[in-house]
Amino acid sequence: MARAIAAMAPAGVRTGCRLIREGDEAYLLPAEAGSIPARQPAMRRASGAARLLAHRLLADAGFDGFALLRTASGAPAWPDGITGSLAHDDDMAVAAVAPVGQIVSLGIDVEPALPLPDEISALVAMPADRTGTADRQLAGRILFAAKEAVYKAAYPLDRQVLGYEDIAVNLETGHATTSTGREVSLIYCVAPRVVVLAFVDDDGV
Ligand SMILES: CC(C)(COP(=O)(O)OP(=O)(O)OC[C@H]1O[C@@H](n2cnc3c(N)ncnc32)[C@H](O)[C@@H]1OP(=O)(O)O)[C@@H](O)C(=O)NCCC(=O)NCCS
Fold first, then answer.
1. Which of 34, 40, 83, 141 has the fewest Cβ atoms within 10 angstroms?
2. Whole-angstrom Cα distance, residue 184 to residue 174?
3. Are the CB atoms for 55 and 47 separated by under 8 Å?
4. Would you say the CB of residue 47 lies under 6 angstroms from ligand 1?
């Protein structure tokens, strides 16, 4: 899966993935642990796994030992000049990091490769969405992950909370538009989990 994510990532974007393991909460640096409100152990474990990935990616980018604090909005506070995103499902954590340049903001999501329950699909899918040739069984799940990834890319730029109805996704063209006018590119893979990477490039700002 790490290879599949790296292969789809645009130039300059570093990615990582990790199966979440017992004890991964120990990878939270003390300041990070303090920034994450007390939550269930499984959530802290997932956040620890994602931060372990982020620490490695940030060290490669010259930010060794950087504490990736959670801000009040939930968005992580990346170092100046860096954009990135984290996600986790029950089993897997993923992270993506890039220097701010051609790409100005990133969002990522990971989901199990399972059909999205109908009642959730009804909330997520909107008439403007296009799933194109995406696997019929998984189209709803990919759309869901796409909207979450787009939201994570858009939020740090616009500081606007968006709902599913605020994001129109076209999986065929790899493009999404938000109700705030933000244009976001996206790519996805299903190998063996659904991972969507969304990014705003400097033409979209
Ligand atoms: C951002 C959000 C969509 C994440 O969804 P999730 O299923 O809970 O969790 P994921 O594993 O996909 O992602 C979690 C990570 O997203 C990141 N994140 C949280 N809020 C974020 C925000 N506002 N902007 C960017 N990234 C954010 C964090 O890094 C978090 O990981 P951490 O808690 O370990 O630091 C959700 O927390 C949220 O804020 N929802 C409100 C708006 C919404 O749901 N709209 C409908 C979807 S468009």
1. 40
2. 8
3. no
4. yes
